[in-house]
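Here is the promised in-class demo. Please do not try to memorize the tokens; focus on the logic of going from shape to residues.
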């Protein structure tokens, strides 16, 4: 169905010529799901963009061939004139992008966007196309599709926007689908629904699927074959079952060990040391050598080739070439694992840091020519919980259940846009009553790490300026030298290279941007951090570093976390308590272990049942 031969993609960057993809070769059968996994910046998404010929302006395909289809329908994707490529793109090859907020047109109703895709790529027109669009919205799980088809994207949650985009892509009935992190922003029940839908469509249409994800549990449930990428190259390709049962490449083994879960709660996760190397440099030997626990002198002598180790199983590592195996060289320690961070034990009788009682958040619904208030929507309908000092409460639930709104209300980001009732007592002071200097102090005490790091970082500011901005505003007593010293320490602490401070957010991968966001929240030494899906867009090794880092900081500083997530593996690893939200209310709450092992409510049971599981690692993982 799809054949890629020796693909090389280069980007012109300030630092020089970046070899984003270096000699990629793979083929995907009709009806097959082939997963491409690896860390941020390894070239997975660039592969998808190259297939669609949607490379950024500074990128070009330096070499290679891409063919789609068989027999008379076979096309040379890289050789087609752009006018023909336009009908292939979105028609024969569909693509679900990673960030729905940047992929949907914000000034077009969602229905019009789906109808446009249907009319461009199928024979349906007018009312028939609209009926089909409603049908697709229903299939991807959008409630009240007849009404919501006329809404604009901003009225929808992140998960709902992602579902709209999936509907728009699948409505064109492509032969081949490239899905780049298609369910990363979704909660587990919707994820299960979307993955079932993709499986059904594959069966119905024998569609080929290139699944790009950092979620290994999703891969194990979906893919027939897996390729692991590292620094622009494939380092292992294998049948999925074989890959998960007995991964061969040291990087693959390290990735599986970095997964969080209940069984690993008492120890730091095994984060992989260092980061993916910058791809403007030339490589003498193995690209993974600086991070590999088994690296030996000959690993740096020449670039290893992909070696056949079994039928359909290839590995790029000298451990399998039959040559001598020497003692491993000493390795650096991974960022975020400086000290063991055992799970906290509840402090009996400790006064809670935060007590939320009967919190209600109500948004006005505007309508008519003058956008007057025509009703209201209760996003949070009376929730109560408390967070002890130095402890973590996980708030879980489906998209739109009110968990992010709860977090934003506590951080005081909804003043003036919503009606807030109830109390949020931080050390006895009600956050909702504060003004002036007291409000400023509370803003320092309660910080937030957002779900989408790109949207939360000012693109015109360098990292050092981003970190300095909050420090200067909330800690005016610090002089420029003290602020710079703290910024440099934070930068090191979150595992970024020192030269990161002089660069802009767009120069970083998603995982690196999230580390910048975490450093910014930590800069003012808060007592409570609302972490809103902080690791949902990260690959597992970076996630392990961030989780270790958050736990270490909690042990060192006693900071408390309100951890909003849909990743049950992360909850099992980091949280002491859990509250399960549904439609603005808390369905069930308690200590993490009992709630997750024997939930009392049907809803919690259904939520847990939808979590994809990786054999041998436990009921974890997003
Ligand atoms: Fe590690 Fe050497 Fe194999 Fe590279 S070639 S993965 S450094 S053992």
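The designed amino acids, position by position:
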């Amino acid at each position: 169905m799809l054949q890629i031969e020796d693909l090389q993609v280069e980007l012109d960057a300030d630092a020089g010529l970046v070899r984003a993809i270096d000699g990629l070769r793979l083929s995907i059968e009709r009806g097959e799901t082939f997963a491409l996994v690896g860390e941020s910046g390894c070239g997975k998404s660039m592969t998808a963009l190259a297939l669609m010929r949607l490379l950024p302006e500074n990128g070009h395909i330096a070499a290679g061939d891409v063919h789609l289809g068989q027999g008379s329908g076979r096309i040379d994707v890289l050789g087609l004139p752009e006018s023909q490529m336009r009908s292939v793109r979105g028609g024969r090859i569909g693509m679900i992008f990673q960030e729905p907020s940047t992929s949907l047109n914000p000034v077009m109703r969602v229905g019009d966007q789906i109808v446009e895709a249907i009319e461009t790529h199928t024979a349906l027109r007018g009312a028939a196309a609209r009926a089909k669009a409603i049908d697709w919205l229903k299939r991807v799980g959008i409630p009240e599709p007849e009404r919501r088809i006329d809404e604009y994207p901003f009225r929808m949650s992140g998960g709902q926007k992602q579902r709209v985009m999936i509907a728009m892509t699948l409505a064109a009935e492509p032969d081949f689908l490239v899905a780049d992190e298609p369910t990363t922003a979704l909660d587990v029940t919707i994820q299960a629904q979307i993955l079932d839908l993709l499986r059904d469509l594959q069966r119905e249409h024998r569609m080929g699927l290139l699944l790009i994800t950092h979620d290994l549990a999703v891969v194990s449930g979906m893919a027939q074959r897996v390729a692991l990428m590292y620094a622009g190259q494939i380092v292992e390709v294998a049948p999925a079952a074989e890959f998960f049962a007995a991964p061969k490449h040291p990087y693959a083994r390290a990735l599986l060990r970095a997964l969080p879960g209940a069984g690993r709660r008492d120890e730091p996760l095994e984060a992989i040391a260092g980061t993916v190397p910058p791809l403007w440099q030339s490589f003498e030997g193995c690209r993974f050598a600086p991070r590999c626990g088994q690296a030996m002198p000959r690993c740096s002598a020449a670039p290893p080739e992909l070696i056949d180790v079994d039928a359909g199983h290839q590995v790029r590592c000298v451990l399998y070439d039959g040559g001598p195996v020497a003692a491993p060289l000493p390795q650096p320690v991974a960022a975020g694992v400086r000290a063991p961070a055992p799970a906290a034990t509840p402090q009996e009788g400790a006064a809670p840091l935060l007590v939320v009682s009967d919190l209600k958040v109500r948004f006005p619904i505007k309508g008519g020519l003058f956008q007057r208030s025509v009703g209201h929507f209760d996003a949070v309908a009376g929730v109560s919980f408390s967070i002890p000092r130095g402890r973590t409460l996980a708030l879980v639930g489906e998209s739109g259940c009110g968990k992010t709104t709860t977090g934003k209300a506590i951080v005081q980001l909804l003043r003036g846009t919503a009606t807030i009732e109830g109390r949020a007592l931080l050390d006895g002071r009600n956050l909702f009553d504060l003004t002036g200097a007291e409000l400023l102090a509370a803003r320092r005490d309660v910080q937030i790490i957002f779900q989408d790091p790109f949207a939360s970082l000012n693109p015109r500011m360098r990292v050092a300026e981003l970190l300095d901005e909050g420090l200067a505003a909330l800690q005016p007593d610090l002089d420029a030298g003290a602020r710079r010293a703290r910024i440099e320490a934070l930068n090191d602490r979150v595992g970024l290279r020192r030269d990161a401070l002089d660069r802009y957010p767009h120069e970083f991968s998603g995982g690196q941007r999230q580390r910048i966001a975490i450093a910014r929240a930590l800069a003012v030494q808060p007592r409570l951090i609302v972490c809103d899906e902080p690791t949902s867009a990260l690959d597992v090794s970076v996630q392990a570093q961030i989780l270790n880092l958050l736990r270490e900081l909690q042990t060192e500083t006693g900071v408390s976390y309100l951890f909003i997530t849909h990743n049950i593996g992360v909850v099992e690893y980091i949280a002491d308590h859990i509250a399960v939200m549904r439609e603005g209310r808390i369905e069930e709450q308690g200590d993490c272990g009992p709630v997750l092992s024997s939930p009392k409510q049907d809803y919690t049971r259904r939520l847990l049942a939808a979590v994809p599981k990786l054999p041998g690692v436990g009921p974890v993982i997003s």
